[in-house]
Design a protein that fits this description.
Blueprint: E1 12-14, E2 21-23, E3 27-31, H1 35-40, E4 51-55, E5 60-62, E6 68-71, E7 80-82, E8 84-90, E9 106-113, E10 116-117, H2 118-126, H3 132-135, E11 141-143, E12 147-148, H4 149-152, E13 159-164, E14 167-173, H5 181-188, E15 199-201, E16 209-210, E17 216-221, E18 225-231
Parallel strand pairs: 3-15, 5-11, 6-18
Antiparallel strand pairs: 1-2, 3-4, 7-10, 7-16, 8-9, 8-15, 9-12, 13-14, 13-17, 17-18
Length: about 230
């Protein structure tokens, strides 16, 4: 096949402890999957079916352990927010996946930040419009290397946390997810056929808030990994 111009490189996330990369196909994100965060966003935390939005695959910003990534403050916002999340890396094709079979489709896990232009998101939400301008912008998904599930298991509990300049801002536990990872995979697979390379950001605990230029944002998921970024 001859292309009219050279295709862009395939986005990927490094695999922890390896020279291999996990190629990214799609990024799905779960909205309001912790009750306290749903309340702070002005929503009812009752266990309604999960809802999803997407980010482009090339939004990933891999951050190596022990390093500090750099993330430019994005344009067209005055309210740039942090959200720390467990990220699920899919490794097996599936559609209409049963809850008790969902973990078999998981290749590994990472910790990530769902960075958000909150003012744009709220303005779009209030008009009943899609969230892409608030969520799906360039470099909006910093992420740790993916840890294979064969190494870390399938975490159903564990601390999720984030600090800004050393001050704790977000803290929760995977056990507090409204929809567990297997339930989330099962529900998502009713609407999309999942493929190896898909990432699922599973939702953030309460305490989201703004960052400004110069801030150091550090967060992680117990047993999976942690990352730091400087807002440039």
């Amino acid at each position: 096949m001859n292309y009219v111009f050279a295709p862009a490189p395939i986005p990927f996330v490094p695999v922890a402890g390896s020279s291999e990369g996990f190629p990214v196909r799609r990024i799905y994100c779960v909205g309001r999957n912790y009750a306290a965060h749903a309340r702070e966003m002005g929503s009812d935390p009752d266990r309604e079916p999960p809802f999803f939005f997407c980010k482009p695959a090339d939004a990933v910003v891999p951050v190596a352990p022990g390093t500090t990534g750099e993330l430019a403050y994005p344009p067209q916002t005055a309210n740039f927010h942090h959200e720390v999340e467990l990220v699920v890396a899919i490794g097996k094709v599936g559609r209409d996946i049963a809850v008790d079979a969902a973990n078999a489709h998981v290749w590994g896990y990472a910790a990530g930040f769902d960075m958000t232009r909150r003012d744009l998101q709220f303005a779009l939400r209030d008009k009943g419009r899609p969230w892409e301008l608030g969520k799906a912008f360039d470099r909006s998904a910093p992420i740790t290397p993916v840890v294979p599930a064969a190494r870390c298991g399938h975490p159903a509990a564990g601390r999720v946390w984030l600090t800004v300049n050393g001050t704790l801002k977000q803290e929760g536990d995977l056990a507090d997810l409204i929809w567990s990872v297997p339930e989330t995979i099962a529900h998502l697979s009713k609407y999309f056929e999942l493929f190896p390379g898909d990432l699922i950001f599973t939702g953030t605990p309460e305490g989201v808030g703004p960052v400004v230029r110069g801030d150091l944002v550090t967060g992680g998921v117990e047993g999976v990994g942690e990352l730091s970024i400087r807002i440039a």
